[in-house]
Every structure is written in structure tokens, then in C-alpha cells.
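Question: what's this shape?

___
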Amino acid sequence: MVVIGGIDAVAKANAVAAAVFKRLRLLLKLRAMDDFVATHHEVLGAEHTYGPHGRTGHSREVLLRIVVHHRQQAAVALFAKELASFGLCSAPGIMGAGEGRPSPSPQIRYASCLVPKQAVPVTILLADSSIAVAVDIAPAASPPQPQLQPPHEVAAVPRQAPAGGRWGMVPLVALCLGRSGDKGDVVNIGVVVRRPEFFALVKAAVTEQAVAAYMSHLVNGSVRRYELPGIGGLNFVCTRALGGGGTSSLHIDRQGKAYAQMLLDLPIVAPLDWLSLTKL
């Protein structure tokens, strides 16, 4: 990470990242080494992760985060060495480079799969003895089906503002709370209305298509919505949304913890009188 300050700090940070990648690719070519598997940079402090929704593109103090992925450790070590020199011979205003030169680290990926029980013998080791454990591999009986409760009654979407009030654009956070998290390269974004009477309108406005469009700079897969009317909630499952997810992602938010906070800025049309019913 590199701290960059001054006029046009954001533009300088992007230019430094481009120059770093350009120089490194030249050096790799001269050494007959393969190109990087992936490169990534983020200008933190300029709402880089917000993409087209960012509001602070003119910050005068930013943190440039640069990450590379290569199959050879020597190539990543070269990146770390060259990055330090950019503080002395590139854009003015580079104030520091974190805690010294970065070190290469392995990129750990995991793959989930199902393994037949009979292929995995179970043994208990106790002191010097070994005890084999028999595992029942017969197909499990189908579990009893739960008794579904009748659907929760949800009020219809209001067609006019209460008591003749006005409608206008409001951020989703005025009507909802939100939280998000990861499952591999999939992110869950859950929103819950602050008051039950908000649910019908939020459900009508915050559709799969609306979320997919608003989060398109991060979500490269599908968006599916699940409804929880009993608690006034909507759960959005977004695939291919974390750059690989977990330890394999190059993103700063590799677990999607800020995705719900980002979605809460989504503007929707609602009765302006509702703003007085909630306390932000």
C-alpha cells in the first residue's frame, strides 16, 4: 500500500498503478516469464469500491492498494522490489508505503465436493490402540415435511403519499437496515424494513433487476431475491461477486461485508412523510 497526497491525488494514484503494471510486465518479458494471472488496484479514500456511485473522486489524500497474482514467487518478489522504487522516481506526493516492502504469500483456494461415506473409513486413535468405527451408509429416510404457516399478510403498495403528502427520492437506508456476508464467491445482501408498512413499497422497488444494475460494477453473475415477509426482509444472493472470494480474492472487501452498506444508498421513490417515522 502507498499513501499519495496532494492535488489530483486520485488521478496520480491510478497513474502510478498503471505505470507499475506496465513496468513489471516489461521486466517479466525481459526475463522470459509469464504475465501475471491477475492484477488489481484500489484507491482507498476515493470510494473506489463504489464504482460509478462514488462521491469523493477529488480527495487529496488516498491509499493506493496494489495486488498481483503470479504462478512464480520470483515474479511477485520482483513486484515488491519495484514498488518501493516508485516512491522515489514517480509521481510527487507519495508519503509512505505502509509497513515496508510487501512479502509474497501463497494464494490459497478451496474447492467443495461431496465424497461417498464408504470411501472414508473412520478410525479413532486412542493411546496406542486403533478402533474402527462402523458408519451406516444406507440411504437416509426422507425427513418429515414441515408444516408451513399461512403467508404473512403484506399491505398493498401505497398509490399516494399518506394524508396527501409528497413523494420523492430517498436512500434505501431511510427505510431499511442491511447486512451482508460471503459464501465463497457468492455474497448475501439482506435488508429489513424499519417499519412493517414500508415492506410492500420496498419489495416493489428493490427488485433483482434493480440490485443487479446498481451493483453491476462488483457482481458479475446472477442476482436472486428471496422474500421473508414475516420479518419484512429481502435476501439477495449474488454470484461471482467477490473476485473469487475468501483467500483467493484480490479485492479489499473479499467477504462482501460492505455490500449491504453500499446497497443502502440505492435511491427509491417513497412518501417523504415516511422520513419522519424513522430515526437515522
Observations:
- The CA atoms of residues 111 and 184 lie 9 Å apart.
- The chain has a mean pLDDT of 86.
- The first strand starts at residue 2 and ends at 5.
